[in-house]
Amino acid sequence: MKYLNTLQGRTTSLAALLAVSASALAIAPAAHARDGLEIEANVALVSDYRFRGVSLSDKDPAIQGGFDISFASGFYVGTWASSIEPVGASELELDLYAGFAFEAGGAEFDVGALLYTYPGESDAHYWEFYGSAGFTTGALESTFGLAYAPEQDNIGGDDNLYVFYEAAYPLGETGLSLTGSVGYETGAFGDPDGDGNDKWDWSLGLAWTALGVDWSLAYIDTSENFREGNATAVLSISKAF
């Protein structure tokens, strides 16, 4: 995925995946490019759908997947879905997004807009704008990013801001990478335990590729004292086509 699906985000997060079914792999279309157009699909089954440190699957496994279409100009559009703990009448999160990715000054930038929808529950969808900058220092890969949701009725008439840093560092010739992240959230979603303090989340893990798929194992925790934000270990595997 092109948009903010990093360690703080969703399926391609190194700390968000568990297993992918053979049937899903069999039917997923392969990525291909033609005349500057590239189409990619991704599938996964996660042990716990953690979004910005908080479980959205009630700490249970979730099935996930999506598609991206990107153009030589840097523009892209995509969609991504996950099973979730019910939001009203909906048990599915369906995201629609569009953005622009480019390189400048030795860094990779990504800006765009994202619509979170919950089919079957019309009063839960909301918009968010995002941006990130990634760069490499020696072997260390770093990304700084933010996501901002303007004031909207479906998030209580409030706005929301999330900022994060994430990093990945290869461990020599082992094929393993050490991954880590820290994020801060304030606004509509910034105090899920209701104690009056804004939320912090962090993760530390390992990522590697084996048997044709991408694996990770990560420790994830938040500053919030409630069940869905308590510390956990997430084992993962994902596949992109």
TrEMBL record:
NCBIfam families: gcw_chp (TIGR02001). Residues 1-33 form the signal peptide. It comes from Glycocaulis abyssi. This is TorF family putative porin. Keywords: Signal. Pfam families: Gcw_chp (PF09694). InterPro entries: CHP02001.
